[in-house]
Specification:
CATH topology: Rossmann fold
Helix content: 25-40%
CATH superfamily: Vaccinia Virus protein VP39
Strand order of the largest sheet: 1-4-3-2-5-6-8-7
Number of strands: 8
Number of helices: 7
Order of helices and strands: EHHEHEHEEHEHHEE
Strand content: 25-35%
Largest sheet: 8 strands, mixed
CATH class: Alpha Beta
Shape: globular
Radius of gyration: 16 Å
Distance between the termini: 36 Å
Length: about 220
């Protein structure tokens, strides 16, 4: 059964043109290097504490790999909002997700918007996942805005880029900045309680640059 999908567009900032230029490169780089399969395996091996029809935000969805991984791995139907600043990236995500056949009748909508000014009311979402997006903004401001739209008791999954020789190359290629692990932990704990940290296996492609931090917003 194909998932229901809709698109909502808000007015993006001028920075959108930068991300628009990266859309094709992102899509090629991460689609063929196993990144999506690593994410899907993570979700299957670490089931999320979500009820049926949970409201989920993919904050900075890019071309849709994280959203696709959740669609394929989540055990219960969910309502997923995929947000990105780049319209071309959203178009690629929409096409990719339209072609997938998830096991559950998930609902997906696409929203063009800024991570630092999310177009959602406070306490909208039960779960937020973000990968490769907070590296483009002020870390504390980005986490604070994610905390604003997350319900008390809700969960955040942050997949920060880990500083390394590989990520230095990615910083140059994609014009972002990694945050040191201590800075990520400190900023996260200002807004959430860290529940767990997961490091992907060294031979897993995502393990070259990524870890997973699961945090919870306190009631």
């Amino acid at each position: 059964m194909k998932q229901h999908a809709e698109t909502i567009t808000s007015r993006p900032s001028g920075a959108a043109s930068l991300y628009d230029r990266f859309a094709d490169l992102y899509d090629i780089t991460f689609k063929f290097n196993g990144y999506g399969r690593s994410l899907e395996r993570y979700f299957r091996e670490h089931p999320l504490p979500l009820s049926a029809n949970a409201q989920i935000l993919d904050a900075g969805c890019g071309t849709g790999l994280l959203t696709l991984a959740m669609l394929r791995a989540l055990p219960r139907p969910a309502r997923i909002t995929a947000l990105d600043l780049s319209a071309p990236s959203l178009n690629k995500a929409r096409r990719a997700i339209k072609d997938t056949q998830p096991r559950r009748p998930h609902q997906v909508r696409f929203v063009q918007g800024n991570l630092l000014a999310l177009p959602f009311a406070a306490e909208t979402f039960d779960f937020i996942a973000t990968s490769g997006a907070l590296e483009y903004v002020s870390l504390d401001a980005g986490l604070g805005e994610l905390a604003r739209v997350l319900r008390p008791g809700g969960y955040l999954l942050h997949l920060p880029v880990r500083p390394s020789p590989a990520s230095t190359f990615l910083e140059i290629l994609f014009r972002f900045k990694t945050h040191p692990p201590a800075e990520v932990a400190a900023a996260t704990m200002r807004h959430f309680q860290i529940i767990s940290r997961h490091r992907f296996p060294p031979l897993d492609i995502i393990g070259w640059t990524k870890i997973a931090i699961l945090a919870q917003k306190q009631s």
